[in-house]
Amino acid sequence: MRKILVVDDEPNIRKMLMRVLSSEGFTVKEAVNGLEALKKIEEENNSLVLLDLKMPGLNGIETLEKIREYDKDLPVIMMSAYGSIPEAVEAMKKGAIDYLIKPFDIEELKIIVERAIQQYELKVENIYYREEEEKRFNFEEIIGKSKAINGVLEMIKNVSSTPATVLITGESGTGKELIARAIHKNSLRRESPFVVVNCAAFSLNLLESELFGHEKGAFTGAISQRIGRFEMAQGGTIFLDEIGEIDLSIQTKLLRVLQEKEFERVGSSKSIKVDARILAATNKDLKKEVKEGRFREDLFYRINVFNIEAPPLRERKEDIPLLVEHFIKKYNRILNRKVKGVSVEAINLLLDYDFPGNIRELENIIERSIIMAKSEIIDESYFGFIREPEEKTKKEGNLQEAEKELIIKYLIQNKGNRTKTAELLGISRRNLQNKIKQYQLDL
Hints:
The protein is α/β, with parallel strands linked by helices. Helix content is 48%, strand content 14%. Helix 13 (320-335) packs across helix 15 (358-372) and helix 14 (344-351) packs across helix 16.
């Protein structure tokens, strides 16, 4: 929610600002003095503060200083009469981002407010993504030990430190965005923005505006200037997911960005230079799309400088036990549950399934099972909704090998304690003893 706090001791000013800004879709709160403003800032999250310079008691400068002690990033726009411009400039030196002169030009007010909030939202989004990347998006979080996933990790290591454009291909749900984030995280641009655009989520006109921005009045509903995702990604990385869905007319503009490093906002003839690394992803066969005239050949070669293929889960099934363990930990934390693991039979059922939805489908299955779980061990009954393929993709010997690896892992994890190991596997201690003997495990 975009919330604005108006701080002014004049009721008419507050009333006017609340009316104008509310009509623009903002949620507007008011404060009659600096002390009340500070209290409301501490109690609620705000996107912007409009702060009068001259107020009885705590004046605008003093209130600004207190705001900065509490929140160094919250945007503050000073409001002042014409004669107090020098003081407004002084306020900007102390952390205000702009100032408005009374009486207000309503259109100027709208533009300045919208621009300030957009910049703040972008800053907050970048801080969030950096924090999330620190916690989540690194090589350790690309789960797996298979040959297929190790090959992907090696490619990420090789390309991350270069400026090369990367095309990440693969079926839906294989983790293409995770690969893109890992490339950015390990690149020289890691401290700059990582901006994601799902190209399939927008109509033709909206996607053009989303990518390149627009000027006020460029089309119906364009009530103010807006910067696009390429400008937001300045100095960083832009990830174009589902690039195969882009219309040919926008492909032409995108090609120019790649070739000339510049573009124009919708409704403008002024070129804007851009320095953003482009990563793209698709689940389509772009060579086929080129052949059938739906994707520009020159753009394909521009984005396909370096290709990483995200392997489907059916080609890295040895990673399933690790992924299951990872998702159990994740959803135990999110859902406040205490599921310890899955039974051998449940793992075998997962290993025998082809996963048309790949990792995303596996994650959904584990999340659903944890929600439904009535015990600490998830058994195969929770996976009854999985339809087994007509032809099994795992032979019995491979299933036994997976079972053996799981038993070894849990025995090591529990320092040889067979009772705890059997509990985690969802089998009896005697059954575990028999399996240890069957697999000749001397642990």
